[in-house]
Amino acid sequence: MAQRHSPPVPCSAPLLAISFLAWAATGLELTVNDHAADFALPTKPGQAVSLSCLVHNGSQAERLVWYRGEGQVGLSDGNRENSSNICIFPVRESDHGVAFTCRLERDRAVQVSVLLDVEFPPQLGGEETLQTEEEKDVTLTCNSKANPQAQTTWYKDNTTLTLQQGHHELYQTSEVFQLSIRKVQKSDNGTYTCVVESSLGKGTKDFHLIVEDKKPVFPKEAVIAAIVVVTLTLFFGIVARKDKLFKVW
C-alpha cells in the first residue's frame, strides 16, 4: 500500500517574541529549534515533530517561508512574521531523508534546513515458491527498507547458508538483498530464508525452491513423432511409385 506524505500543519505553540537590540545587530540570521546551521533531527514513525524558525538581529519585520523538499508549505498570516512554527504529525517512514527548510522571503539565501532522520525497523514478510530446472540460474530477492541500515543473513532449511564460490553470489544495497544460485542442482532444493536485522528489530521472508529434472533439448515425444512422420512419408511415397519401381526392376 502506498504511503501518503505527512503534510506539515501549523503548530499551536505561541509565537515567540524577538528582541531587537541595536548593540547585537551583527547581521540578519535565522535559527530553527536554536540551530543556526543545517542539522539532522532523529525521530520515529508516529511521533510529532515541531519546528520553530526565528529571525535574529533584524531591524524590521521579516516574513518567513517554509519548504518541504521543493514544495512550499502553506502558512497562516499570523505564522509568518519574524517567527514561524510548523508541525509534522504523524511522522511516517516516507518522511525519512526529507528536508524542511525555513527561508527569509525577501532573501531566500538566508535559510536553515532540517533533515528528518526517521528510525524504523526492517519491514519484510511473506513467502514465495520458485520452480526451476537443473543447470539453470535462479535469483532470490528481498526488498526491505530500514533505518538504521540492517544486516542480512541467508538460511537454508533453518541453517545458516554456507556460500560456495562460483555457485552462490550475494548482491546488496540499502533496500535490495539478493541471493543468486548458479546452475542449480537437486541438492539446492529447500527453503531459503532472508533475515534482515537492525538494532530496532528484524524481518524475515521465505523462498521455497523446487528444482525439477532438466528437460531434454529435443523432447522425446517430438523426436518419435518426427520419425513416424518420416517413415510414413517414405512408405506412401514408395506405394505411390510402385509401378515405376517394378518396371525398373
From TrEMBL:
GO terms for molecular function: cell adhesion molecule binding. It is found in: Membrane. Residues 1-27 form the signal peptide. SUPFAM superfamilies: Immunoglobulin (SSF48726). The chain crosses the membrane at residues 222-240. Pfam families: ig (PF00047). Gene3D superfamilies: Immunoglobulins. One of its GO terms (cellular component) is cell-cell junction. It is a single-pass type I membrane protein. InterPro entries: Cell_adhesion_signaling (IPR051275), Ig-like_dom (IPR007110), Ig-like_dom_sf (IPR036179), Ig-like_fold (IPR013783), Ig_sub (IPR003599), Ig_sub2 (IPR003598), Immunoglobulin_dom (IPR013151). Its main location: membrane. Keywords: Disulfide bond, Glycoprotein, Immunoglobulin domain, Membrane, Signal, Transmembrane, Transmembrane helix. Residues 14-113, 122-199 form the Ig-like domain. GO terms for biological process: cell-cell adhesion. The keyword Membrane applies. It comes from the Eukaryota. This is TMIG1 protein.
